[in-house]
Amino acid sequence: MSFGSYMVTFSIVVYCWVQGLISLGVTVGFLAFASLINATFWWLIHTGRNLKFHDPSMTSAQMIVSLLPPIWVMAFLEAGQARAIFLLIAVVPMLFGILALTTRQFIVVGVWFFALYGLLHLGLWAYRPEVLNSELEILQTVAFALVMAEITIIGGFISSLRGKLRQRNLELGEAWSRFGNW
Per the UniProt record, which residue ranges are transmembrane (predicted)? Predict the structure, then answer.
């Protein structure tokens, strides 16, 4: 599923290349970066090394590193509107955590997402300030922060509902077993 998600993003990257918004090197770089990330997680899972981690599913880690290839592409885009498209894509990995993360874990991932986006802007400000439009960048950053906050709250709520459902199913199973012993 993760690889498929990267390929959806890759199709947008290819479109950016076809439109002349980025170079072929950036496009190939995205594909290489995404492939390396997927290969690393595949290797960790298939060797069982992930079982030694605090979170064997590596959900948070996969969500956080999934933002790196799009950030790579965003660093080379001239237009702020084009970078905004990749912010939409950044929301998708957050959805993968809805069934696995607690509210606290969601907050950590959201902070990482926002920090990576902030580092992108810091890099652009330092090395390519001419591509930044202050008003647009501030609007996009505030919108991104609000959307990340909403997803964090909703994701945490869904996660807590899942926990309550699990507990009720256990109680129902116990009640059913007592009923069956009559």
Answer: 12-45, 83-101, 106-126, 138-158
Segment (H or E) for 107: helix 103-127
Over residues 154-180, the pLDDT tens digits come to 888 888 888 888 889 888 888 888 776
Confidence (pLDDT) at 182: 60
Query: Quick count: other Cβ atoms within 10 Å of Cβ 178?
Result: 9
Classify residue 19 by its DSSP letter: T
3-class secondary-structure state, position 113: helix
Number of domains in the chain: 1
d(CA 72, CA 143): 21
The two tokens of residue 111 are 């902070």
| Structural domain harbouring 139 | 2-180
Distance CA 155, CA 59 (A): 13
